[in-house]
C-alpha cells in the first residue's frame, strides 16, 4: 500500500505541496496588496485531497475507475492551486523587464533560475552579476532567494561564469564535493566525498533490483517477506551520453531496458551541491513484478531514520529479532537516512512512500505491478525523481530535511519587480524549526496562522521575525483556538519547542483584509 498506484501517490504529494504554496502566497498577497483570500475554494480543494486519503484510494487498492477519478481530482487541485499561487505573486510585482523569484521555505536557498527568452544575464539588487549557463537553449542563473521571501533580478548584458565547473564525462560527474563514477549499466560504482576523503559506496548504487511479486493473499496490498528470494535478472547494458556540463550544472542521460520496461534517467549534479538528482521515466510494462533502486553506503549503524509527518522515526537495519524482521518494508515520506555521529547519507524522493534500509543499504521502492483489483495498475509511463544526498557533520546540521523540501517544492518565478527588491515575510532564526504552513485563519478574521515543528529531535528555542506589522501573537491548538498569549519581544515572536513538537501561532495585525 506504500507503492501500488504510483500516480495516485504522486498526485497526493504534488497536491499537498501545491496547496501549501497557494496558501502561503495568497496570505502574502492579502497582507501586502489587499488581494482577496479564497477561503471557500481552498477548502474545496483541500477536501478533494483529503477525500482521496481514504483507505483503498491513497493506498492504491481500489478498482481502476476509482484511481482514474482520483488522478482527475489531483490534476484539478494541482492546476487550480498552481494558478492561485501564480496569480498571488503576480499581484505582488509591478510590470517590468525584471524577474522576481519567490521562496516559501523558511531558509535561504540557492536555485537555478530559467531566464526569459533573450535575457543573457542578471544582477542582484546589490549589483552582483550572477553566473549563468545555457542548457538546451535555455539560459539559467544561480540565485540565492531569502527565506519566506523574494529577490528581484535585473537584466544585464554583462555575462559572467565561474572558474569552477561541474566536470562531466561519459561515466563521471564531479563537482567540488563529490566525484560520481558509473559503469556501462548506469549503476554507480563510486561516490567519493572529496571533502572527507572517503568512499561513500559499499556496493553498486543506483542499482535497480526487480523481483517476482506474487503475494499470498492480497495482490495490490502486500509485499510478501520472501520477495528477495525471487530476483528477476536485469543485466542489459545502458546507453549513456553527456547531456551538458558547465559552471552551474552537469548531466548524463542513461537509457536501458529493465526486463520489459524502458528506463530513461537524467542524472544531474549542481555546483556546490551534495545532492545528485535522478529524474526518471519508466515505461512500466510488467506483471507481478516489484522494482526497487538500491544505495548501499559505507555508514555503520543499526538504525535508519525515516521521515514521517512533522518528524522522523528510527527503525532497525537488521533482522535480529522477529519484530525487526517483520519490518522489512516500511513507510517514509520525503527521505530516509543512514547516519553516524559526524556524517551520513540519504535518499530523497518527490512522490514515493515505500522503502527498506537493510545492512547499510537504502532501498527505495519504485513500482509494483499487481493484477487485482486493477489488472492494469501502474502500466505505462511513470515519472518521478529521487536523489542521493551526503553530508559531513551532525544530523542536526546535515541539511537533509531542507534538501528534501527543496526537491519537492520548486521556487515560483514571476516577470516583474517588487517595490522592495529583496525581502522576507518571516525569518526563523533556527534551521531545526520548519515553518511548514502559512495561511489565513479559518474564522476569516484576517489573522495569520503559522504552523511550525521541531525537526531534529531536540528541545530548542527560536525567534520568528516578521516584516508585517504584528501587534499580538497567540499560541493556539490545531483548530486555531487560543491557548496562551505570546509576548512579542523587540518585534519578534519567541518560542520554545520540545523534540518534534508542533506549534500553531496566530498573528494579529494593525489592519485586517
What fraction, in percent, of the residue positions are helical?
Answer: 10-25%
Lateral arrangement of strands in the main beta sheet: 14-15-16-17-26-23-22-19-20
Principal-axis shape equals: globular
How much beta, percentage-wise? Answer: 35-45%
Number of helices: 5
Straight-line N-to-C gap: 43 Å
What's the Cα radius of gyration?
23 Å
**Residue ranges: pLDDT <50 for 5 or more in a row?**
none
Look at the helices and sheets and give the structural class: alpha+beta
What does this structure look like?
With 513 residues, this protein is of the alpha+beta class. 16% of the residues lie in helices and 43% in strands. The chain has 5 helices and 36 strands. The strands form 7 sheets. The protein has a 9-stranded antiparallel β-sheet. A hairpin with a 2-residue loop joins β19 and β20 (311-316). The protein is globular and about 65 Å long. The mean pLDDT is 96.
Name its key features:
nine-stranded antiparallel β-sheet, single chain, 5 helices, alpha+beta, 513 residues
Amino acid at each position: 500500500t506504500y507503492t501500488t498506484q504510483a500516480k495516485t501517490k504522486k498526485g497526493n504529494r504534488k497536491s499537498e505541496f501545491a496547496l501549501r504554496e497557494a496558501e502561503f502566497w495568497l496570505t502574502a498577497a492579502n497582507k501586502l496588496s489587499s488581494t482577496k483570500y479564497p477561503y471557500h475554494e481552498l477548502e474545496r480543494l483541500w477536501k478533494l485531497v483529503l477525500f482521496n486519503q481514504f483507505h483503498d484510494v491513497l493506498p492504491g487498492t481500489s478498482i481502476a475507475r476509482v484511481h482514474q477519478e482520483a488522478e482527475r481530482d489531483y490534476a484539478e487541485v494541482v492546476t487550480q492551486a498552481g494558478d492561485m499561487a501564480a496569480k498571488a505573486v503576480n499581484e505582488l510585482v509591478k510590470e517590468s523587464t525584471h524577474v522576481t523569484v519567490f521562496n516559501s521555505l523558511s531558509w535561504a536557498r540557492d536555485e537555478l533560475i530559467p531566464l526569459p527568452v533573450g535575457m543573457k544575464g542578471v544582477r542582484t539588487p546589490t549589483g552582483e552579476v550572477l553566473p549563468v549557463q545555457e542548457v538546451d537553449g535555455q539560459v539559467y542563473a544561480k540565485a540565492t532567494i531569502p527565506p519566506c521571501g523574494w529577490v528581484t533580478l535585473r537584466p544585464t548584458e554583462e555575462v559572467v561564469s565561474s572558474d569552477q565547473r561541474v566536470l562531466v564525462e561519459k561515466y563521471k560527474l564531479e563537482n567540488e564535493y563529490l566525484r560520481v563514477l558509473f559503469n556501462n549499466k548506469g549503476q554507480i560504482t563510486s561516490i567519493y566525498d572529496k571533502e572527507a576523503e572517503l568512499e561513500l559506496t559499499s556496493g553498486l548504487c543506483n542499482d535497480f533490483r526487480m523481483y517476482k511479486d506474487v503475494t499470498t493473499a492480497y495482490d495490490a496490498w502486500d509485499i510478501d517477506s520472501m520477495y528477495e528470494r525471487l530476483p528477476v535478472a536485469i543485466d542489459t547494458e545502458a546507453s549513456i551520453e553527456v547531456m551538458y556540463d558547465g559552471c552551474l550544472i552537469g548531466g548524463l542521460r542513461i537509457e536501458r531496458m529493465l526486463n520489459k520496461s524502458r528506463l530513461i534517467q537524467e542524472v544531474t549534479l549542481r555546483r556546490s551541491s551534495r545532492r545528485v538528482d535522478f529524474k526518471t521515466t519508466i515505461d512500466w510494462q510488467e506483471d507481478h513484478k516489484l522494482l526497487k533502486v538500491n544505495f548501499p553506503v559505507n555508514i555503520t549503524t543499526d538504525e535508519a531514520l525515516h521521515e514521517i509527518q512533522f518528524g522522523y522515526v528510527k527503525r532497525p537495519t537488521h533482522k535480529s529479532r522477529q519484530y525487526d524482521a517483520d519490518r522489512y518494508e516500511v513507510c517514509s515520506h520525503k527521505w530516509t537516512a543512514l547516519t553516524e555521529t559526524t556524517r551520513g547519507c540519504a535518499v530523497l524522493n518527490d512522490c514515493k512512500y515505500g522503502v527498506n534500509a537493510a545492512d547499510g543499504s537504502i532501498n527505495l521502492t519504485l513500482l509494483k505491478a499487481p493484477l487485482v483489483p486493477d489488472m492494469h495498475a501502474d502500466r505505462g509511463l511513470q515519472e518521478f525523481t529521487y536523489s542521493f544526498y551526503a553530508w559531513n557533520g551532525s544530523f542536526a546540521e546535515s541539511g537533509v530535511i531542507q534538501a528534501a523540501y527543496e526537491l519537492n517544492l520548486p521556487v515560483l518565478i514571476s516577470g516583474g519587480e517588487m517595490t522592495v527588491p529583496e525581502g522576507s515575510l518571516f525569518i526563523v532564526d533556527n534551521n531545526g524549526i520548519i515553518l511548514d504552513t502559512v495561511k489565513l485563519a479559518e474564522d476569516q478574521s484576517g489573522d495569520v496562522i503559522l504552523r511550525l515543528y521541531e525537526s531534529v529531535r531536540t528541545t530548542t528555542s527560536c525567534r520568528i521575525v516578521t516584516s508585517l506589522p504584528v501587534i499580538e501573537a497567540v499560541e493556539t491548538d490545531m483548530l486555531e483556538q487560543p491557548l496562551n498569549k505570546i509576548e512579542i519581544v523587540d518585534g519578534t515572536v519567541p518560542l520554545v519547542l520540545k523534540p518534534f513538537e508542533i506549534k500553531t501561532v496566530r498573528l494579529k495585525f494593525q489592519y485586517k483584509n
